[in-house]
Amino acid sequence: MIRNLIRCKRVTKEDYEKVMAIFPPSEIYNGGDYLPDYFHMLIDMPNNEMYAAVIGDKFVGFTLMTTVDDRRSIVTRAGRVSKEYAGKGIAGMMLKWMDKDSPLYRPEVLWHKTIGNTTHSPLPQLINKGIYNKILEQDLRFYDTRKGTLQNKYNVIINSNENPSFKAESINEKVLGEIIASTDHKPYLFPENEIVSDDVPYGAIKSNAPLIVSKRTTVVVSDLNCPQRTLLSISNFWQAPIGMVLNFNVYGCVSENSKEHISLHFSKFLGRPMSEYILLRAISSHGTSWTFLERTLEQFDFKRTEFYGKGLVSVRRKLIS
To answer: Source organism's superkingdom (predicted)?
Structure first.
């Protein structure tokens, strides 16, 4: 049996090429795969561990494990299995590495969490079967443009007097932690008690704030003095095979303030080296009106496009102990 041939190996920086060879990144998420660009940043973060399923000297599977929620939850992401061994249960085998009497079991970890596309992942079916519990559902839309076009539009908008001030500002992890912990703001920003950033579902607790803010993260907030009108936005970016991807999450009241938020995110984003093609991945709470966001993105000459699904679902399951 193939199970008897596979061993679990901790991945190091020197294994980069072996990981990339497991499955062509250009064929993952329609070319939107973040792992080639994120690999070295993620492996240096203290709450991330990478593991490979190995047969002989060959990497045939990979999973990234991110510890969150005061070490009570592990989030798996960026998983992949080689085409040669597809359909042989390797993905499920790697998940069981976290259960009791398995190589990655930790008694303090209670939950396995993950996030998936409602169109392209099996998570909706696994929820229906009772294997996972749904903890958050989000809407997902894609928009694209060219770097030169975005830079020109950004310069025109920033230099005009049309952009009213709603006192939006970039914040650090300390302020983010205070907002997450605020009993006044949580019911409006995080009613499900979850916050997703960079495709990691975090519990809405203060201790997660330093984990949410990485080198690639920008967090913007506005209208903090009025919780019902507060808007919190989080962006991350990576160079994918298809081009530069900008991940943009919004929480709270989306209104005219979205223009100032997006402008602040673009001010950080445009200073980075990137390819000419830009894909914006916009994520909002399920049922949020897209009117203001779409109107703002149109001003920056982003066009709506179909890319990889229309929704995201975050789930968790109790680990076997």
So the answer is: Eukaryota
Query: CA-CA distance, 164 to 176, in Å (whole number)?
Result: 24
Half-sphere exposure of 171 (CA within 13 A, CB side): 23
What is the rounded distance in angstroms from the CA atom of residue 234 to the CA atom of residue 241?
A: 23
Strand bridging mode 218-222 / 169-171: antiparallel
CA gap 4, 11 in Å, rounded: 20
Q: pLDDT at residue 315 above 80?
A: yes
- CA nearest neighbour of 34 among 20, 47, 53: 20
In contact, 61 and 91? CB cutoff 8 Å: yes
Distance from chain centroid for Cα 273:
21
> pLDDT for 267-280, tens place per residue?
999 988 899 999 99
The encoded tokens of residue 224 equal 């903090």
Return the amino acid letter for 5. L
250 DSSP 8-state letter: E
Q: Average pLDDT, whole number, for the chain?
A: 94
Tokens read off for 195: 């916050």
Residue 74 φ/ψ, nearest 5 degrees: -120, 130
User: What distance lies between CA 54 and its chain's CA centroid?
Assistant: 27
Q: DSSP of 90-123, one letter per residue? A: HHHHHHHTTSTTSTT--TT--EEEEEEETTTSSH
CA-based nearest residue to 302, from 90, 146, 115: 146
